[in-house]
C-alpha cells in the first residue's frame, strides 16, 4: 500500500487509491461482520472451549509444580529418616533374635525333666537327640549366658555318662535278654512234654531262627550275589516309636542303642567295653545256662519219680 501511494504521480491518484483501499477495508469489515453473525454460536463455543483448555492447562501446570515440590520435600524427609529407619530395622532383627534365644532357653530349661522321663521309659534315642542338641546350643549360641552355667555343667556331665547307661543296656540285651528267650522256649517245651507224658527224650532245640545281633547287622558284605532273601537293615532307617514299648523288639532296641552311641560319638568306647566284658559275659551265660539246665533236669526227675517211671 505504501509503495503504491508513494509511486503515484499526483495527489489525485493517491486519493483514488486511498478511496479504493478504504472501500476494500469496509467491504472486508462487512464480510467479517456477516461471517461473525452467521457463525456466532460456533465462535462462542470455540472461544469458551479455548478458555477452558487454557485454564485446565494452567491448573495442570500448577498441580505438577506442587507435586514436584512435594516430591522434593518427601525426598528430603526420607533422606533425613533413612538412618533412623535402618536403626529401627536392625533393632527389629535383634529383638527377633533375642526372642528366639529366649524360646530356646525356655526349652533347654525343660530338658532335664524331659530327659529323666525319656530315660525312665527307656526311649534312649529321643533322649540322646535331646541331650546332644541342648549341649550344642549351650556351648554354641548360648555360651555367653551366665545364668545357664549350672545347667550347662549338669547336661555336659549327663552327656559324658550317657554312653555308660547305653552300653549297660546293650550288654543286657546282647547277653541276658537273648539267652532268656532261649530259656523260656526250653521251659515251654519241657512243660509241653510233661503234659503229654511222652517217654521219648526231649528233642534238641532249634536255634537257627533265633534273632541275633549278627543277623541284625547282615549287609551286602556278608551276602553272596545269588542270595536275595537276606534282609539288609541300616541304622539310618532305625526309628524310635514313642508310643510303643522300646524293649518289645530286642533287635531294633539294640539298633537304637547303637545309633544313640553313634550320636554321642562313643562307638570306640563301646567296642572297647564289649571286648573287655566279652569273656566275663560269656562265662555268666554258661553259668546261668548250667544252672537252668540243672534245675530243669532236677524238676523233670522229680516229675518222673512222682509218676513211678524212673529212667
TrEMBL record:
<keyword id="KW-0175">Coiled coil</keyword>
<feature type="domain" description="Exocyst complex component Sec8 N-terminal">
    <location>
        <begin position="20"/>
        <end position="117"/>
    </location>
</feature>
<dbReference type="GO" id="GO:0045202">
    <property type="term" value="C:synapse"/>
</dbReference>
<dbReference type="GO" id="GO:0006893">
    <property type="term" value="P:Golgi to plasma membrane transport"/>
</dbReference>
<dbReference type="Pfam" id="PF20652">
    <property type="entry name" value="Sec8_C"/>
</dbReference>
<dbReference type="InterPro" id="IPR048630">
    <property type="entry name" value="Sec8_M"/>
</dbReference>
<keyword id="KW-0653">Protein transport</keyword>
<dbReference type="Pfam" id="PF04048">
    <property type="entry name" value="Sec8_N"/>
</dbReference>
<keyword id="KW-0268">Exocytosis</keyword>
<dbReference type="InterPro" id="IPR007191">
    <property type="entry name" value="Sec8_exocyst_N"/>
</dbReference>
<dbReference type="GO" id="GO:0006612">
    <property type="term" value="P:protein targeting to membrane"/>
</dbReference>
<dbReference type="GO" id="GO:0032584">
    <property type="term" value="C:growth cone membrane"/>
</dbReference>
<keyword id="KW-0813">Transport</keyword>
<comment type="function">
    <text>Component of the exocyst complex involved in the docking of exocytic vesicles with fusion sites on the plasma membrane.</text>
</comment>
<comment type="similarity">
    <text>Belongs to the SEC8 family.</text>
</comment>
<dbReference type="GO" id="GO:0000145">
    <property type="term" value="C:exocyst"/>
</dbReference>
<dbReference type="InterPro" id="IPR039682">
    <property type="entry name" value="Sec8/EXOC4"/>
</dbReference>
<feature type="coiled-coil region">
    <location>
        <begin position="18"/>
        <end position="70"/>
    </location>
</feature>
<dbReference type="GO" id="GO:0006904">
    <property type="term" value="P:vesicle docking involved in exocytosis"/>
</dbReference>
<feature type="domain" description="Exocyst complex component Sec8 middle helical bundle">
    <location>
        <begin position="246"/>
        <end position="296"/>
    </location>
</feature>
<protein>
    <recommendedName>
        <fullName>Exocyst complex component Sec8</fullName>
    </recommendedName>
</protein>
<dbReference type="GO" id="GO:0007268">
    <property type="term" value="P:chemical synaptic transmission"/>
</dbReference>
<dbReference type="GO" id="GO:0090522">
    <property type="term" value="P:vesicle tethering involved in exocytosis"/>
</dbReference>
<dbReference type="GO" id="GO:0015031">
    <property type="term" value="P:protein transport"/>
</dbReference>
